[in-house]
Design goal:
The chain is built from 14 helices and ten strands. It has three domains: 148 residues, no CATH class; 191 residues, 2-Layer Sandwich (Alpha-Beta Plaits), CATH 3.30.70.1230; 56 residues, no CATH class. The protein is elongated. The longest helix is centred in the middle third of the chain and has 34 residues.
């Protein structure tokens, strides 16, 4: 698998920017060394010398000791040194830190050789100051490289976090070799969110409108998923797959996934208000949540690698989401998810066999935290449980009576009609 490398420096436009900054610094340093402009600092300790109570005086004066336009010939030593410093400014940005350090050392050696070889000629700048210029230019380059590297890392992390979870992007930044590590087995919770009637809605929109509509929908769902510390695994057409418990393990993955799903449904009016303001069709979503063991890690080939989760729980969550249309409920969770949330109240929907899975799955509709539900809702949940138990036991009369009452008093009507039709079919067999 390919690994991610973050270079210390990326040649190109930045090399030109670095060279310009170094040339500007060189110009200021040379003018300072020549004395074209200088700052003079004066300090005098005055405590006790008068009655003013002043402890000291600090003065800063500007001036110059060299007239650039009236100076005599600068001589070969100065021009040779200046050429060496100019080459240093142009060559350092083309190399990484080690190469730049070698170039700086060679430049310092060349300056020393130049002064020693042309010792008979006077120079307007002493050799020591020119060596100081080399040091200052090298330090400036190191600081520019560090700032550029930090900026690059943040930009890469922002870009990488759009394709993999934020925690994983940070790990890849710290240790690029971890990109190729194999997956691990972990208990997770998976949420599938899908648009009901997407095909009909998409036919009403132009391609640009459809893109805008989907982007608003994806942003809305993703924001709530991240709010509950989930990770967006992928977008598939109009579906969103989110994961809790990966890449960072979590003890509350089932609770967080359910809270995210319930908030997505509870706040959907906010999204629909934005759609109405833009003249776009409103959205109705179905959500399926499943909990179980899955393989978590990179999956793919040498040409493309995707960080994802693979396992039975992923397939179950997708099938549960599809069942929301049949039972006319916004969210369906699997039995393993419900078992981890004793503080939540669920309405049992049915037990189904998922394609490709030998064990059946009992489906539940989450109603909310037990302490937030009224007595009437709890009585209806108890009545619903009695009706389901009577139906399983073959007590058709009791089941019909209870389902009929729930149909009129609670609903959804279509779901209880489904139960009543199923009983009639069972009776006729």
């Amino acid at each position: 698998m390919a690994t991610l490398t973050l270079p210390y420096y990326n040649p190109g436009r930045r090399s030109l920017t670095y060279s310009l900054v170094l040339l500007l610094a060189l110009t200021l340093l040379v003018l300072t060394g020549l004395g074209v402009f200088r700052l003079y600092f004066g300090f005098e300790w005055t405590a006790g010398s008068n009655d003013s109570g002043q402890l000291f005086t600090l003065s800063v004066r500007g001036g110059r000791s060299f007239n650039l336009f009236e100076a005599d010939s600068f001589g070969r030593t100065f021009w040779s040194s200046l050429l060496i410093l100019l080459l240093l400014c142009l060559l350092m940005p083309l190399f990484r830190l080690a190469g730049a350090a070698i170039i700086a050392l060679l430049s310092a050696a060349a300056l020393v050789y130049c002064h020693l070889q042309l010792a008979a000629e006077s120079s307007y700048m002493p050799m020591e100051f020119e060596l100081l210029i080399v040091l200052i230019l090298f330090v400036t380059y190191v600081l520019l490289g560090y700032i550029g590297e930090v900026r690059d890392r943040k930009r890469v992390q922002r870009l990488l976090s759009q394709y993999v979870p934020v925690e994983l992007a940070r790990e890849y930044q710290r240790d690029p070799q971890s990109v190729g590590r194999p997956g691990v087995q972990r208990e997770i919770s998976v949420l599938f969110c899908d648009v009901v009637g997407f095909t009909a809605k998409s036919e009403q929109l132009t391609p640009s409108q459809l893109a805008e509509w989907l982007n608003m929908y994806f942003s809305y769902v993703s924001r709530i998923v991240v709010r509950y510390r989930g990770s967006i695994d992928k977008y598939m057409g109009d579906s969103v797959m989110a994961v809790w418990g990966a890449p960072s393990s979590s003890r509350t993955h089932a609770h967080d996934a359910l809270c995210a799903g319930m908030d997505i449904q509870a706040e959907v009016n906010t999204l629909n208000e934005r759609y109405r303001a833009k003249g776009l069709p409103e959205v109705v979503m179905g959500i399926g949540i499943s909990t179980g063991t899955a393989m978590v890690g990179p999956l793919g080939s040498e040409y493309r690698v995707d960080y994802t989760v693979v396992g039975d729980s992923v397939n179950v969550a997708q099938r549960l989401e599809a069942q929301t249309r049949k039972y006319r409920v916004p969210i369906i969770v699997g039995d393993k998810t419900a078992a981890q949330l004793p503080g939540m109240v669920f309405r049992e929907l049915d037990t189904v066999t998922v394609t490709g899975r030998s064990q059946p799955v009992t489906m539940y509709e989450p109603l909310g935290a037990r302490e937030t539900l009224g007595e009437q809702v709890m009585q209806r949940v108890g009545m619903h449980d009695q009706a389901m138990a009577a139906s399983r036991a073959g007590d058709w009369d009791t089941a019909i009576e209870l389902f009929s009452r729930l149909r009129e008093e609670w609903g959804p009507i279509s779901m209880y009609d489904l139960y009543l039709r199923g009983i009639e079919q069972a009776r006729n067999i």
